[in-house]
Amino acid sequence: xxxxxxxxxxxxxxxxxKSDIVRNAIILIMMLSGLVRADAESEKFLLLDKRIVxxxxxxxxxxxxVAKDKRNPLFAEDKPWxxxxxxxYANVLYDEDENLYKCWYSPFIIDESTTNTPxxxxxxGGKFKYQGRxxxxxxxxxxxxxxxxxxxxxEKPNLGVIEFDGSxxxxxxxxxxxxxxxxxxxxxxxxxxRYKAFFKGKMISVGFSPDxxxxxxxxxxxxxxxxxxxxxxxxxxxxxxEYVGITRTxxxxxxxxxARTSSADFLKWTKAxxxxxxxxxxxxxxxxxVFYYAGVYIGLPAIYNSDxxxxxxxxxxxxxxxAWHRIDPGTxxxxxxxxxxxxxxxxxxxxxxxxxxxxxxxxxxxxxxxKHFGWRNGYFCLATLRPDGFAGYEPISPDSPAVITTRPIxxxxxxxxxxxxxxxxxxxxxxxxxxDGNKLAQSKPLKTTATDAKLIWPRKFKSAxxxxxxxxxxxxLRNAKxxxxxxxxxxxxxxxxxxxxxxxxxxVETISTTHGQTIHIQxxxxxxxxxxYIHDHAGKYSKDDKLWDILNLVMHIRxxxxxxxxxxxxxACE
Length: 574
Fold this sequence. Notes:
This protein is mainly beta and 574 residues long. Helices cover 4% and strands 41% of the residues. The chain has three domains: 6-31 and 490-573, no CATH class; 44-63 and 391-488, Jelly Rolls (Sandwich); 67-385, Glycosyl hydrolase domain, family 43 (Tachylectin-2, Chain A, 5 Propeller).
């Protein structure tokens, strides 16, 4: 395998059932991702990852272009316990188990300055200042819960859980936590810890819930030793094998700084260290939701401009959640509106986390119509991005092509596919070179905007002939923007006896499915695994899209670890 990291090698078996048992046709696909880079191999490679790119000529890496939804804002401060959204601090997921979008957000449920000031007087530069001396200034943050079937029309359900002003008829799930990050953790074997919260109480704290609605007591984490007065967020880092928490601290002269802490069990956390700060004193890193995608960790830093008292969202990436790289600093991914008074003129805070659909990425965010420290009305908003469209390379000068050269790649022998935007008269061409720099083949130009489009090669060239060989790729872009590439694979159909023999070799005693949605595996040592199929966010997966990463499961079995959630399936160990 040469330099390929065996620890991170992923082989994927994909199954499609035509009835409720395995004796029907099974589609087997195996993928060996041989890209040599600093940490791992992955089946898709984002060009924003500098570990992939060896050189770039007449090329610049620029952030993608989002489209703000025409139906914005999706909801606003319309409940008595929502006097001020402030920065909203939203956490969004699409729950495949329930086919439901879920959002946890953190308004100030008590804000005396807002409540005790007539709406007509809440004008910046007017008679009364926000948090002024004319009224009380007590504030209390809480966590509210909203749901949606389509991600557009949201409901704030009466949950009957938390009392506010003498009634439990509200959508509150918790009072007190500040800047809560909430996520669903399918890998935790304890169902009472299925949902996890990472927030500031008296200090950085965590909480657990079986359903995201009913929460246990806050558990303080003094070891983190950090201010945490921001939108805190946490997640499982698959390449590190631990939980990572992203929070905030302060120091002169930069002011607000992004800090990182980690934990093996979500209870004991390391001391938080600064991992990102502003490039100028007045451009401060207010918060940064982080998520893992296509082999990299992507951050959405909220940049607070203390000169203008406004905030927008930019883009960063990291190979390990420690070393962070800003992409085109100063250029927003989610920009403020240019017209004062619109729903996101003052702030645009990205939610944790994006929702990945088949045709687009949904970036929810909190917006407001005026300055950060003044009177403002808050909203929940949506922007969308094309698949893989966080950032890509494009030409600097239109007079000559941009040339992007990859680092050495161990070829899988599979066909190369690209994701790119191509303008009028533009094109993207790929050329393979061997380890000595000799040209092997050049593709025909890709002349249309495409997602995961296979390139066409000369008839005499066969990608399979490159399997196991070290190559590098040169991309030429003309009036185009290249986001990602991958090596796509062809399905090969095998019969049930053959797949059963493979499984038996890997300690599998029995395997069965029910209606194509659940799977049961019993191992020869008595351990059992149950899997449930997870639908695509848009609910449009076909039978052939029902994926199960068997070899990833086997790797976990060999290491005596319960498997993680894998392509299309959620696996649990008993």
